[in-house]
Amino acid sequence: MKSTRVNEVNELQSLAKGHVLYFFRNQELYLSHVEEYIITGIKLNEYSVIIENDRLTSMIKHRLSKKLDDHCLQKVVFINNYDFYYAKGDFRVNSIFDYLPKVLDDYSEENAVVRSWAHVEWRDEEEISSKLLASEEEADAIVSDSRILSVCAYDSELASDDFKAGLLACHNYLLCDK
Fold this sequence. Notes:
Blueprint: E1 7-9, E2 18-24, H1 27-43, E3 47-52, H2 54-65, H3 70-73, E4 76-80, H4 81-85, H5 96-103, E5 114-119, H6 128-146, E6 149-155, H7 161-168, E7 173-175
Parallel strand pairs: 1-7, 2-6, 2-7, 3-4, 3-5, 5-6
């Protein structure tokens, strides 16, 4: 299912559901958006599943530890993005719902609301753009059907204009830095 219209947003607090695309250029702004996304989710009693690399995960955890107590931090789950995308040996966007049973096993809360943030990184691989676009189309259908809020973040410097246009076609929102 392709999104027909992309709405530009400068913040995520007002969104409750949708498939958000974020092309980032500035690491500090990126980290601020992730932090804001997690804290907003906690205020709404939602779990946040963050798919991120180890280096940025460490920075995000450090920032969150200054603002949230241990009880709140239990609602934030980090998954290494390499493990997530290359679990089958080559690049594949797994459904966040494949991970939820494992992620939420320790929590007895039924009907938990989950939001996701995925930093999509890839190693040099032939046909990666087509794999990514096919996976994003699949993710768009899952997000639409499940009515969750999901952010897909890409380093703007690594994405070609054609690739960016393809990604825009399968997201409802484009997060723009202020």
